[in-house]
Design goal:
The complex is a heterodimer of chains A (183) and B (221). By secondary structure, chain A is of the alpha/beta class. Chain A is built from 7 helices and 7 strands; from the N terminus they run βαβααβαβββαβαα. Chain B folds into 2 domains: 186 residues, Flavodoxin domain (Rossmann fold, 3-Layer(aba) Sandwich); 34 residues. In chain B, strands 2-1-3-4-5-6 form a 6-stranded parallel β-sheet, with helices on both faces. The chains are: A alpha/beta (183), B alpha/beta (221). At the A-B interface, α3, α4, β5 and α5 of A face α3, α4 and α6 of B. The structure holds flavin mononucleotide.
């Protein structure tokens, strides 16, 4: 089993969660910090579908993260909940990663979506964190997680909103093989 | 009244939908509010320059009207960064203003833009801005190609109605009648999918590759 954590933890709360993950994980878990202000946001060129199919046209280090991400058995995305959605840095990574799907339009649960590019797709986990988040913000984040699941046809995404010092059983679930066996 | 039309497409003014959507919307607004000052701003994709001129232009407007593409079910990352810059720059003296937004998607179902509009609404609420109307538009990608088809035609009648709702709300005292509109061109989804699916392999071929290379798996180990 190959595990990957892709995180944007720009504050002490995020660091706390990251410390917990690092302390409780073995060497089979790889960590990637994607918070880099210098990276180019997606240009909307669709080059990753029609010029260099499967890879973003920019080569600024995210390709190495994607190689690990796409080839993993489990991936956890972690970021501060931002107006109920992703943080800008995690969003940059996700926008630049549409090369994980094909451009075709297919029907999936009654809506139009893209089919996956790879046969093997990781089981996805999405964790947002924040203090004093409203119910509305937490609910929106979970809905956005469901949408990501539909978008990537992963059929497996688990989303949670964590508060620092609170219940981290979601993270244990990510780290724990037993959860998969139980489901 | 100063209206700022804010283009959140990373493709800037060359994009296939957000910019022409703003132009159409501006035209509909002028029909009634001809003395409103209209300005356009394209949010820079790169954050390397000085943010001050962009923030100043935003701060000076009485009304913001956004148009942006749906990216992975929410807002494009550079739009999030600009909203963050704005949030950081706010002071207790910062003005409140009305905010309108069109989020358009490549997928045909307009409702896929719902959560993106909700993110914008929460941003507004947390920053003392008055969120008024959100338009979710499906089938956004061919908007520019279809720009010659009049807004008054049957095909675009729902889109026109949504633009008119924004126009009529700009100086309404009461709450908007319909804070969310989900619209698209009147075009069959099945046909739209077929058209989309034929186009992509052609574009791969135009780039000098075999059509089958569209399925490349560069990261397979
Ligand atoms: C990185 C990326 C992600 C996208 N994600 C979605 C999506 O989740 N759902 C959707 O319907 N369209 C998606 N699209 C398609 C755009 O929303 C669509 O092409 C839009 O019309 C582009 O508008 P613009 O030309 O103003 O940038 C995505 C496009 C890109 C480049």
């Amino acid at each position: 089993m190959k595990y990957t954590v892709i995180y944007d933890c720009p504050d002490s709360q995020g660091q706390d969660i990251l410390d917990y993950l690092m302390k409780n994980s073995s060497d089979k878990v790889r960590f990637f910090n994607i918070a880099d202000e210098e990276r180019q946001p997606c240009a909307g060129c669709f080059g990753c579908w029609i010029k260099t199919p499967g890879a973003c046209i920019y080569k600024d280090g995210l390709d190495a993260v994607q190689r690990e991400d796409f080839g993993s058995d489990r991936v956890l995305f972690l970021c501060p909940v931002t107006w109920g959605g992703y943080s800008p840095a995690l969003k940059l990574y996700l926008d630049r990663s549409i090369c994980r799907v094909l451009p075709f339009l297919v029907s999936h649960r009654g809506e139009t979506h893209h089919p996956p590019r790879y046969e093997h797709n990781p089981q996805l986990f999405l964790a947002g964190y924040g203090s004093s988040l409203s119910t509305e913000e937490s609910e929106l984040f979970k809905k956005i997680g469901e949408n990501l699941d539909d978008n990537l046809s992963s059929n497996s995404l688990n989303t949670a909103v964590l508060s620092v010092g609170g219940d981290y059983s979601f993270l244990d679930g990510f780290l724990n093989d037993a959860m998969e066996a139980a489901s | 009244m100063k209206i700022l039309f804010i283009n959140g497409s990373p493709r800037g003014e060359k994009g296939s939908s957000s910019f022409p959507i703003l132009k159409d919307l501006a035209g509909v607004i002028t029909e009634v509010h001809e003395n409103f000052e209209q300005n356009f701003l394209t949010l820079p994709r790169s954050m390397k320059g000085d943010p001050a001129p962009v923030l100043k232009q935003m701060e000076e407007a009485d009304i913001w009207v956004f148009a942006m593409p749906l990216y992975v079910d929410t807002l494009p990352s550079h739009v999030l960064r600009w909203l963050m810059e704005y949030q950081k720059s706010r002071t207790p003296e910062s003005l409140s203003r009305r905010v309108y937004a069109v989020v358009n998607s490549g997928f045909p179902e307009p409702e896929q833009n719902r959560e993106a509009l909700k993110v914008l609404e929460l941003f507004c609420r947390q920053n003392g801005l008055e969120w008024r109307i959100g338009i979710g538009m499906g089938m956004g990608e061919p908007y520019k190609q279809m720009v010659q088809v009049p807004l008054k035609s049957f095909f675009k009648s729902d889109i026109l109605r949504a633009y008119e709702a924004v126009r009529d709300d700009l100086n309404r005292e009461s709450l908007p009648e319909k804070p969310l509109c989900f619209v698209r061109m009147r075009w069959p989804v099945w046909l739209y999918r077929i058209q989309g699916n034929m186009g992509w392999p052609m574009r791969v071929k135009q780039n000098g590759m075999k059509k089958s290379e569209i399925y490349a798996r560069p990261y397979v180990l």
